[in-house]
Amino acid sequence: MSRIAEVFSKGKAFIPFITAGDPDLSITEILIPAMAEAGADLIEIGIPFSDPVAEGIVIQEADMRALSAGTTTDKIFESVKRIRMKTGVPLAFMTYLNPVFVYGSERFIKNAAECGVDALIVPDLPYEEKEELKPYCSKYGIDLISLIAPTSKERIKTIAAEAEGFVYCVSSMGVTGVRTKINTNIGNMISLVKETKDIPCAIGFGISTPEQAKEMSQYADGVIVGSAIVKLAAKYGTDCVEPICSYVREMKAAIS
Amino acid sequence: MSKGRFGQHGGQFVPETLMNAVEELLEAYEKYSHDEEFLKELQTLHETYTGRPSLLYYAEKMTKDLGGAKIYLKREDLNHTGSHKINNALGQVLLAKKMGKTRVIAETGAGQHGVATATAAALMGLECEIYMGEEDTERQALNVFRMELLGAKVHPVTSGTKTLKDAVNETMREWTNRVEDTHYVLGSVMGPHPFPTIVRDFQSIIGKEVRSQILKAEGKLPDLLIACVGGGSNAMGLFYEFLEEPSVKMIGCEAAGHGIDTDQHAATISKGTLGIFHGMKSYFCQDEYGQIAPVYSISAGLDYPGIGPEHANLHDSGRAQYVAVTDLEAVEAFEYLSRIEGIIPAIESSHAIAHARKIAPSMGKDEVIVINLSGRGDKDVAAIARYKGVQIYE
């Protein structure tokens, strides 16, 4: 069983996101094992991009902070190698297609696999274009995560049929960021996936409170939280490890 | 699988949230681009509203002054709203209306596409919101007020480099936020399929008119076409008609800013590398890690780090040639055309004029150049004055 499959077999998964190198990579190296310790079941590591079109202002600013601090893809690979020595928590890289493509798609995916990364999430790589990365992901044993959105409708079955690892269900229209209310019929989206394939589904976009996480976990196998955590990183800077870990504990408890 | 390719370029690299929207657009476009009523409606707008066909003007004084090839100017600057952008804006807004959309959004650099979209939306009764880099709202303050007069809401974009690239980012973000009733009127031959094709088709009226106009005037096809290139819509509009005519050479002029050996330019073909951004595979100014580079040009309309995928392919195949023109050369051309022909060109189009000044003298007197004068320069007068250190009190 892959590390990712194992996570979802043990109950509802809490999946936090952080931007690598925000505020700097030495903090990232402490933060990821600490979040795993605090109850994170799978951790998304954002590779910062200059123009993250699927992100709201919170993660846009985190990307800018990380890039200004001199974060590069190579330095992130080095950090993840060291992180892997400290924790066995499943790791997913979340980034845009251009940083992967320009680095060299095969070289990127090979390096990611060698660092112990389990999955890759690329929001600007839709189903129709996945051949850009899929052959290399298969070759090096990395799950290329499929996303479905409230607008996907009849596309959900097509996408689910070829999905691997887990399906990332985008809860709301628009970009990432905290929302007070999620109006989409998530249950319906997820049942369309499950009718097609027995694969875990995790919900992301807009979730920030324990109450929302609890509600979403009724429908899904996992809950993804990004902006709410990145906000803590922005607020506390190099002192962010403890506040983020206490938030992770609270969110994990809410869905357990 | 992957659609909308031009050689290795193009494609459809958008978030899943937008996939059904681009598919719906493609379906609608395939239907209406063959619909006689739609085409007739658009043609009537071109003739009665825009003032098409635009003139093809023989620049006799410029020709004599340069002493080489005969120079013709395709006067897109005489269109309603002052540039070629209206050709695409009318087409897309009409298409959006047929699709039942009630709201259009658009990015703009210099403001020409924003003004054109706001104009088309006012005419057809659609709600309109324009995203414009904050830096550009300052460089082109008059155009901001112009769009507001036309009933559009203008959002200054404060993220990233606060220019055209960031305006595109923000318009895409807004489209993912509200896609059901909203069409994104992309302003150039770029972005995800089918935009590069749709925009090219709506702009190809430029080249079609040039063909019949030059045949009438000269009894032959032009030897050389010259146009400026940011995303590349006016160039593609001129070139497309002549792609299958091997005798017609074509040159796209990109912005070299302070020079392509500095880090202050927007010369995508000269200095860019292959990447995947803003929905398309093409060439981009970027670093070794795929971070998009901050670009620079005196011209807000050419200040973009990418180029449309069809141009990237024309470059790969050698069918078209791309050259870089500096700010200084463009400003000199801006002044030159104003004095010699009494025509003030847009600073974007001045890049094409500048290259013609370099190349025309070495060509034969029996050869013919057509330059796409894509826009008028009124909007740039204050900026050129500032560039030259002249104080203007408006």
What do these coordinates show?
Chain A has one domain (3-255): Alpha-Beta Barrel (TIM Barrel). By secondary structure, chain A is α/β, with parallel strands linked by helices. Chain A has helices at residues 3-9, 25-37, 57-68, 73-86, 97-114, 134-140, 155-161, 186-196, 210-219, 227-236, 241-255; strands spanning 13-19, 43-46, 91-94, 119-121, 143-144, 146-148, 167-170, 201-204, 222-225. In chain A, helix 2 (25-37) runs parallel beside helix 4. Chain B is an alpha/beta fold. Chain B has two domains: 5-46 and 85-195, Rossmann fold (3-Layer(aba) Sandwich), CATH 3.40.50; 51-82 and 204-388, 3-Layer(aba) Sandwich (Rossmann fold), CATH 3.40.50. Chain B has helices at 16-32, 36-50, 60-66, 85-98, 112-124, 134-139, 141-149, 164-177, 195-203, 205-218, 233-239, 268-271, 309-317, 327-341, 347-359, 381-387; strands at residues 5-6, 9-13, 56-58, 70-75, 103-108, 127-133, 153-157, 182-184, 224-228, 249-257, 273-277, 279-284, 321-326, 368-373. In chain B, the strands form three sheets. Chain B has a six-stranded mixed β-sheet with strand order 3-4-14-9-10-13, with helices on both faces. In chain B, helix 5 (112-124) packs parallel to helix 7 (141-149). Chain B is globular and about 55 Å long. Chains A and B meet through helix 3 and helix 5 of A and strand 2, helix 1, helix 8 and strand 11 of B. Chain A: InterPro entries: Aldolase_TIM, RibuloseP-bd_barrel, Trp_synthase_alpha_AS, Trp_synthase_suA. Chain A: Belongs to the TrpA family. Chain A: Its EC number is 4.2.1.20.
